[in-house]
Amino acid sequence: MNHRAIALGLACLASFVTHGAMAQGLRPSGAAGAGLSRTAPAAPSFALPAPGANTALRQADFIVAVVNSEPVTNNEVQARAARIVQQMAPQGNPLPPRDLLAREVLERLILEKIQLQLAREVGMRVDDFAVDQAEESVARQNSVSVAEMHRRLAADGISKERFREELRNQLLLQRLRERDVQSRVRVSDLEVDQYLREQQSGADASRIEINLGHILVAVPENASPAQVAERQARAQSAADKVRAGEDFAAVASEFSDAAEAKKAGGLLGMRPADRYPELFVSATAQLPVGGVAGPVRSAAGFHVLKVADRATAGVPTLVTQSHVRHILLRTGPQLTESAAAARLAEYRRRITAGQADFAELAREHSQDGSAKQGGDLDWANPGRYVPEFEQAMNALQPGEISEPLVSRFGVHLIQLVDRRQARLTQREQRDMARDAVREKKVEEAFTNWMQELRGRAYVEYRDAPQ
Predict the structure, then answer these.
(1) 48 to 87, 150, 152, 360, 388: CA distances (angstroms)
(2) pLDDT by residue (tens digit) across 426-441?
(3) Is the predicted pLDDT of residue 88 greater than 90, yes or no?
(4) Fewest beta carbons less than 10 Å away: which of 3, 128, 234, 309?
(5) CB 107 within 8 A of CB 451
(6) Domain locations along the chain
(7) 10-188+444-461 with 209-311: one CATH topology?
(8) Which residues lie across from 415 on neighbouring strands?
(9) pLDDT tier at 360 (50, 70, 90 boundaries)?
């Protein structure tokens, strides 16, 4: 196993491979806690490549560029390029020409240094406890202990101090992007509506589920024009009552000749759109949930249709929800991450020993809005919380308490209360759609932000990388 060629992390290497694209996924907003719902990249992801790829640099070093008076060296470029090659080669990805790869890596390092300089200028820092946590995550990803990981890295020329500094830089970059890009992106209701329309218009009917309320005013075969007019007027009266806000089940019971009027309040049940008559689907396709169509005519008579529920294409309707509570300690000049973690570790010890109650400690000490509820964050859908919080939560069994965990908000202690299967409401589906739109906007905002930073920086190119 080669240990020198560890990826610098999702925040920089993935941005080189994917041109800055963030991981795609639906992440709903609206957490009860202190901004926990904001989507963020997970902690840096690292891989220990296969053995036999040791490419220790032996040539003399020299400066290839200067970024606001800070140099970028040839060895930095070559080391980063070697890591990328070692990541791409085992996956069978085609490699760019060496000179092109070197130029791309140089640009990536320039952008990275610009961001790190900005982070330090505004006083951002990463505590040792967060670096410890990232180290443990890397070791866990590679199925080795932290001590064994350090031993193997040292055998390949990377000191513990150098590796921790790389981790610290990646965490610093992540926090800067969260502060300057992700936290400022907003999504309007109009953008969500447009996204949903695009999803529905381009989706196969079998991928869209709807629940329709149905009122049928039957028209007998060979009915006279007068009978048809009377039946149509009756259906119109039913539609008017529903549109005026009267209870659909009551109106269906009064007017409908359909069997479901009495036993299901006029509801036909949640089912794929292709299992409904085409007339029903086309009549309600452009309606929002709660919208009413009709009367519309078929061979059976006149129909009044209400969209009771709709599952948007591409958004899951059945999910595993988690019920958690937490204690949050915010960090700053008066409380370091290490000190906060030590305090929370003591709370955990007292709770597990039966000497304290989690909810009482949360009410007394938590600095989150959920403190009054004993830290209770209620039921949450997948993706509701920032990745580091969610990863720790997902590793717990009901009743278990996590070790202290660092996020952008501070340091947490998490207890999983329970899990359950639940069907998403229409509002929750909109939340997931909103977050899909938000992730796309974050990508665009990140690109623009990087262009602005690059434009303001002083960059002097020296000798080309070799």
Answers:
(1) 9, 12, 10, 43, 21
(2) 787 788 788 888 888 8
(3) no
(4) 128
(5) no
(6) 10-188+444-461, 209-311, 318-423
(7) no
(8) 325, 401
(9) very high
Instruction: Indicate the range of 222-236, 248-262, 346-360 predicted with least confidence.
Output: 248-262
pTM, rounded to two decimals: 0.58
Q: Which residue's structure tokens are 């030590």?
A: 342
Given CATH 1.10.4030.10, say whether it is the number of domain 10-188+444-461.
yes
Q: Of 139-153, 350-364, 410-424, 444-458, which one has max mean pLDDT?
A: 350-364
* Token duo for residue 161: 């101090």
Which has more confidence, 175 or 54?
Answer: 175
Distance CA 431, CA 427 (A): 6
Cβ atoms of 379 and 314 within 8 Å: the answer is no
Mean pLDDT of 216-244: 91
Long-range contacts of 294-297 (CB under 8 A, 24+ apart): 294/215, 294/235, 294/239, 295/217, 295/232, 295/235, 295/236, 295/238, 295/239, 297/232
Of residues 265 and 415, more confidently modeled: 415
> What is d(CA 385, CA 297) in angstroms, rounded to the nearest whole number?
48
Decide: 47 and 78 in contact? Cβ < 8 Å.
no
Average pLDDT, the chain: 81
pLDDT for 313 beyond 70: no
- Is residue 380 within 8 A of residue 322, CB to CB? The reply is yes
Confidence band of 204 (pLDDT split at 50, 70, 90): low
Tens of pLDDT, residues 115-127: 999 999 988 888 8
Extract the tokens encoding 282. Answer: 């086309």
Is the backbone of residue 380 left (phi > 0), alpha (psi -120 to 50) or beta? Answer: beta
Q: What is the CATH number of domain 318-423?
A: 3.10.50.40
